[in-house]
């Protein structure tokens, strides 16, 4: 006999009964906390475009990792703000670079905390683009193959410092296969790859520019990020990354792309991550600061929706707050 609808409705009447019929459960174990690390000591430099987020030095980073462990967050994602930038971003593959040092310190103290490193060049190049530039017909474009070769160097250096998951966030062609091969050849078969596979060209990365100090000096990144209008193309990008060896695939941004997330999870059934990006975070912060929405309710609702749509892991600046709110119940 079918379960009559009115019975179901009655089951939603009390908090206890609501909990029993709830289909999706958000827990701290679903979340990863992105952090920005820079050289120095005792530094906690507020990112004004992302209220509550800071660029931090390694000592403060370790305090944050301690919190992550206490809150039950399984993973952190690291972005480096290097001391020096150049045309190709060479400080990104220096074994003594800021990310490499940070990873060694974290793994030395918190062996079980998963360290994911963002692998890209936009924070490390003096022009702010995600790779090596070359001139063509009087304008500049990113040289895909030269960039991929450098990405491999950066990825191997991160793995050598102890990173558990390498996350290439540029959108160069063939990067996942090249990084997988490079890692294997260097003896890092155990390092996993999380591919930013469906990375849309989005206005919601806006606040990140201040966080990572990486606005492109000219032009934009549209040439190598996806058109928000294209869903089939996103699925093809994901399929390619899986073929090339991605262990986890990602959709970014998250909240406006729940349909993509759902289709990726349904189609491939692979561990799937979603990045609730800077603008998505700052929008909630700004509206809440004006008293227009309730921060806790909206942050929890948004993250739950991302999980419901198919995300196994949500990368979110809200991770520590969410973990605290979830504990409060
Ligand atoms: C590239 C990278 C970016 C983000 C994550 N990795 C910037 C970009 O793609 O333009 C965006 C994250 C966010 O907005 O929170 N290193």
**Terminus-to-terminus distance:** 35 Å
Specify the overall morphology: globular
Cofactors and ligands: ligand PBG
Architecture (CATH level 2) name? Alpha-Beta Barrel
| Count of separate DSSP helical elements | 12
Strand order of the largest sheet: 1-4-5-8-9-10-11-12
Could you tell me the mean pLDDT? Answer: 94
CATH class assignment: Alpha Beta
Order of helices and strands: HHEEEHEHEEEHEHEHHEHEHHEH
- What is the radius of gyration? 20 Å
Q: What features would you describe in this structure?
A:
By secondary structure, the protein is an alpha/beta fold. It contains 12 helices and 12 strands. It has an 8-stranded parallel beta barrel, surrounded by 9 helices. Helix 5 (144-161) crosses helix 6 (175-185) and helix 8 (232-244) crosses helix 9. The mean pLDDT is 94. Ligand PBG is lined by residues 118, 120, 122, 169, 205, 208, 221, 277-278.
Topology:
Layout: H1 5-11, H2 15-20, E1 31-37, E2 44-46, E3 54-56, H3 58-71, E4 75-80, H4 98-109, E5 114-119, E6 133-136, E7 139-142, H5 144-161, E8 165-168, H6 175-185, E9 192-199, H7 208-212, H8 232-244, E10 248-252, H9 258-268, E11 272-276, H10 278-289, H11 295-308, E12 313-316, H12 319-328
Parallel strand pairs: 1-3, 1-4, 1-12, 4-5, 5-8, 8-9, 9-10, 10-11, 11-12
Antiparallel strand pairs: 2-3, 6-7
Helix pairs in contact: 3-4, 4-5, 5-6, 8-9
Bound molecules: ligand PBG.
């Amino acid at each position: 006999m079918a379960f009559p609808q009115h019975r179901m409705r009655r089951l939603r009447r009390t908090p206890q009964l609501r909990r029993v019929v709830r289909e999706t459960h958000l827990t701290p174990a679903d979340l990863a906390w992105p952090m920005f690390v820079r050289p120095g000591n005792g530094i906690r430099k507020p990112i004004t475009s992302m209220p509550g987020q800071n660029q931090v030095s390694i000592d403060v980073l370790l305090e944050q990792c301690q919190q992550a462990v206490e809150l039950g967050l399984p993973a952190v994602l690291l972005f480096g703000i290097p001391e020096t930038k150049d045309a190709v971003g060479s400080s990104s593959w220096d074994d003594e670079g800021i990310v490499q040092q940070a990873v060694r310190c974290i793994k030395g103290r918190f062996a079980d905390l998963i360290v994911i490193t963002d692998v890209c060049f936009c924070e490390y190049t003096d022009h702010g683009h995600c790779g090596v530039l070359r001139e063509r017909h009087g304008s500049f474009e990113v040289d895909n193959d030269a960039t991929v070769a450098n990405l491999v160097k950066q990825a191997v250096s991160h793995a050598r410092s102890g990173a558990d998951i390498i996350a290439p966030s540029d959108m160069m062609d063939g990067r996942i296969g090249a990084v997988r091969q490079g890692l294997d050849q260097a003896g890092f078969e155990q390092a996993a790859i999380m591919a930013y596979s469906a990375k849309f060209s989005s206005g919601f990365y806006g606040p990140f520019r201040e966080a990572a100090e990486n606005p492109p000096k000219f032009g934009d990144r549209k040439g190598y990020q996806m058109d928000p209008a294209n869903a089939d193309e996103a699925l093809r990008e994901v399929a390619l990354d899986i073929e090339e060896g991605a262990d986890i695939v990602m959709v970014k941004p998250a909240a406006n792309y729940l349909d993509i997330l759902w289709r990726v999870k349904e189609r491939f059934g692979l561990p799937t991550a979603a990045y609730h990006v800077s603008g998505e975070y700052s929008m909630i912060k700004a509206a809440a600061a004006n008293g227009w929405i309730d921060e806790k309710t909206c942050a929890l609702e948004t993250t739950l929706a991302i999980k419901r749509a198919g995300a196994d892991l949500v990368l979110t600046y809200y991770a520590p707050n969410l973990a605290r709110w979830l504990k409060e119940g």
